[in-house]
Each structure stands twice: as structure tokens, then as C-alpha cells.
Amino acid sequence: MKLLASIGRYFILLGKIFKKPEKHSVYYRQTIKELIYLGVNSIGIVIIISVFMGAVITLQTAYNTENPIYPRYLIGLGCRDSIILEFSSTVVALILAGKVGSHIASEIGTMRVTEQIDALEIMGVNTASYLILPKIIATVIFHPLLTLMSITVGIFGGWLAGITTGVISSGDFIYGIQYAFIPYYITYSLIKTVVFAFIISSVAGYQGFFVSGGSLEVGRASTRSVVYSCILILLFNLILTQLLLS
Amino acid sequence: MIRVINATKSFNGNKVLDNVSSDFEEGKTNLVIGRSGSGKTVLLKSIVGLLELDSGEIWYDNARFDTLDFRGRKLIRKGIGMLFQGSALFDSMTVEENVMFKLNMFTGMSHSEKRKRVDFCLDRVNIRNANKMLPSELSGGMRKRVAIARAIALNPRYLFCDEPNSGLDPKTAILIDNLIKDITEDYKMTTIVNTHDMNSVMEIGEKVVFIARGVKYWEGTNSEILKSDCKPLNDFIFASKLARQLKN
After folding, report:
1. Does the pTM of the predicted model rise above 0.90?
2. Is B106 within 8 Å of A22 when comparing Cβ atoms?
3. Which DSSP letter does residue A88 get?
4. Using a CB-CB distance cutoff of 8 angstroms, which residues of chain B are in contact with residue A212?
5. Where are the domains of chain A?
């Protein structure tokens, strides 16, 4: 019953979030701010993780395909497909659920317990929309860019690890990443990213918005937002993969 | 004028407000007093619509507020300013942005007009050279004054203050009290102040409503309060040794 009530409350909140904004210029400025806080500030962590994951994928593929039957360029192909299909969309989304999701939940939760949301409400502002909509727009716009960046940097990391350790030549790796390339995989990855970005920002916004109590509850809401976002990302990963690749 | 009729509110079966009725007059500083947990904040939050009453009515002049939808309330709320116990300034915004927020959201003023208005409001509460400071860089008294400046930015008709001088030293508390009284008279607002500070009662309490355990026991002026024979009120006023000695 509690779960159903929470789901109902989540959709009612979504209804409030997507009401017509009071003033577009204020929302526009707020969205730009969120693009910087939630998007630009995540570039660093995405680059670091992608480089290392690309490198590890290359090395693991190389050590598991040492049989001469397999052509060496398969290492490049394996690295490319792993990164495009799963790593840059799903794994990066799980990491961003931790970074961006906890940031959103704790920011909005703190505003709730310090009565800042009450102050907004008394002014006649649609608080759900003003606080959460710019965050949803910012993540839905910027996370696909982060995914593209992650794909590029991840493949670069794989190439770098491959040639510096000598498990594959540069020529073989580059041939591998071009071999049997299916452009639709990029579209598939970006569709997943948009859905995951929406899940991260809306679930975190929901958790922060309904905090009651003090700083302890804000911490709990932040943790809950990460856990629930991760579960939903994994569930929707399964659903979208079946829908888009079958 | 704000009129509260038979306001009743319970939480988990506990009655926090029990048939409270009162009229809060225009151009006057109306005080709601009572011990901590007496129901003052619940009454104030019910009047502004942050809490819904179980039964009873809230009237803003000729409009019944408690039955209005979000749009209807929004019209009345544009005329409301509120000072929260913890100031509730937006901590990611500077002092100037805090005061300018309502102007940005609800007016079509140019940036220079808005800045002029912000400077006027900050000047009115004696805050100078702090426009670019963040709330975390201000003292408790300054934060309260900025919150008052934010509350009056759009010339409100109604001002609500929840424990405006909690956590302040006596001198700063009197400054805040006098500021609230002056602003109320200047703008001819209906002001409701929640407090348990007897200094505030004696300084600015033009009309005083006393609540205990969710029930209204007494109402009158600050000049009548010391002569009252209401026992719960006297227990509240003369709770301290100093007050009892002064009475005797």
C-alpha cells in the first residue's frame, strides 16, 4: 500500500512539475544554472571513469581472446560495442545517479527543512515546477552530451591502453572500432540516457521535495534517491533493451 | 482584515487547534502569544495555507481563503509577506537576489527599477553594503532584516512573522519588533506576529491573542494584559521569578 501511495504521489508531483511556468525568463535562467551545476560539473568524473573503463575493457578483452583463431581487431570491436551499448549509457547513469541524484535530493531536502520551500509557496510560486523542472530539463539535455563524451573518451582510453601495453597495434584497434559498425547503437544508447536522466532527476527531486524532519532525514532522502534511481535504471535498461534491440 | 472562524486542526488524533476564532485588524500589529507547542505556528501556517484546517474558515477581507484553489490562493499570496523563524532566505542567492526574487517572478519591471526597489527595501530595514553577500555571511539579526526586506518587496497587504526575534539578543529583538511595527503602520498592513516574548508584547502588541493547548483563552491589548484575571495567561506571563517580583 505504501509503495502504491508513493508511486501515486510521484505522478501527482510530476503533474505539478509540468504545469505552465510562471515566468519563462526565470525558469530559463534557472535551467542555465542547473546545466552548469548538474552537467558541466559532471564532465570531470565522466572523463576519468570512461578513460579507465575503456582501458580495462580493452585489456580484459585482449587477455580473454589470446587464441590465434580470433583476429586482434576484435579487441577494438569489443571495446567499442561494450562502451556504446552498456558502459556509457547505463554505468555512467548509475554513477550520475550517485553524484547528481544525491545533489538534487539534498539541495531540495535542505530547502524543505529550512522552510525555504514554504517561503516560495507563500509567495505563490509553483514550488515543484520551479525547483524540479529546470533540473529535469538540464539533465535530459546534458546527459546525452556526457554519454557522447564518455563514448569518445572511453574508446580513446581503450586505444591508449592497448598500444601502451602492446596487446594490440594502433592499426588493428582502429580497424576494429570501424568494423561492422551499426550507427543505430548510438541512437539506442542516447535514448536510454534520456530516460535515465529523467529517472535520476525526477526521483531525486521527489525524494527531496517530501522530506520532513531535519538533517538526518535529508541524508536518508539522498541515500534513498540513489538506491531507487539505480534500481529503476537497471529495470528500464532491461525494458528498453528488449524494446529497442529485439 | 484577516478573520479566523472556529479553526480546528488535529495531528494523529491530537487536537492542536480547538475552535480558535479571532479578527486580526488592518494597520495593527496583532500578536499571537503562548507557550512553545501551544499551536501558534499551526494557526499561522493554517492562515497562510501551508496547513489545511480540519474545520473552520479563514477570510482575507471579503475572500474565503481556505476553500480557494491554487490559482485563487496565488492572487492573495501575492499580497502576503512572511518572516520565518529561521529567516528562510534562499541560501544559494545573494541578499540582493533574495529581495529581488518576487520582483523577478511576478513583475515586468526593468532591471534598474528592480535594483532601485531592492535598495529601497534594504535601506528601509537598515541594511547597507550587503547586496552581494550570501545569507551565510550575515548575522542572525541581519538575516531577519533581509527577510523583512524580501517580505515587503512587493508592498504586501498582509505580513506574517513567526517568532521574529527568537535567537536574538534583547536589543536586536527590540529593533526587529519596532521595525515590524513601523512597517505595519507605513504600509497599513494587517500584521500577525507569533511570539512568546513578553518584551514584544509590551513593545508592539496592539492586539494580543493568547493560546494555550490549542484553545484561545484571552484577547485584548497590551495595556489590558497585566490586569487580566485569566489564570492560564497569568501563569504564562508571570512564569519567571523576575516577572513575579515585578508584579508583587
Report:
1. no
2. yes
3. I
4. none
5. 22-245
Residue type, B211: I
**Measured CA distances, A93 to A142, A237, B23, B211 (Å):** 12, 10, 55, 53
Which residues, 6+ apart, have CB-to-CB distance to B191 below 8 Å?
B28, B29, B30, B158, B159, B160, B161, B180, B183, B184
Instruction: Determine the Cα–Cα distance for residues A211 and A222; give it in Å rounded to an integer.
Output: 10
The answer to whether the Cβ–Cβ distance between B78 and A121 falls below 8 Å is no
CA B48 to chain A, closest CA, distance in angstroms equals 7
**pLDDT 10s per residue in chain A (246 long)?**
888 999 999 999 999 999 988 889 999 999 999 999 999 999 999 999 999 999 999 999 999 888 888 899 999 999 999 999 999 999 999 999 999 999 999 999 999 999 999 999 999 899 999 999 999 999 999 999 999 999 999 999 999 999 999 999 999 999 999 999 999 999 999 999 999 999 999 999 999 999 998 889 999 999 999 999 999 999 999 999 999 988
CB atoms within 10 A of CB B42: 22
Q: Do B86 and A123 touch (CB under 8 A)?
A: no
Closest chain A residue to the Cα of B73, Cα to Cα: A124
What is the rounded distance in angstroms from the CA atom of residue A127 to the CA atom of residue A121? 6
Quote the DSSP letter at residue B84.
Answer: B
What are the cell numbers at A245? 534491440
Q: B4 forms bridges with which residues in the sheet?
A: B22, B58
Q: Which domains does chain B have, with CATH numbers?
A: 1-79+198-248 (3.40.50.300)
Q: What is the DSSP string of B98-146?
A: HHHHHHHHH----HHHHHHHHHHHHHHTT--S-TT--GGGS-HHHHHHH
**ipTM for the predicted complex:** 0.86
Q: Cα separation of B51 and B42, whole Å?
A: 7
DSSP 8-state code for residue A20 = P
| Cβ-contact B22, B58 below 8 angstroms | no
Nearest residue on chain B to A16, judged by CA atoms?
B70
| Tens digit of each residue's pLDDT (9 = 90 or more) over B41-96 | 999 999 999 999 999 999 998 899 999 988 888 889 888 999 998 889 999 999 99
Cell numbers 484561545 correspond to B216
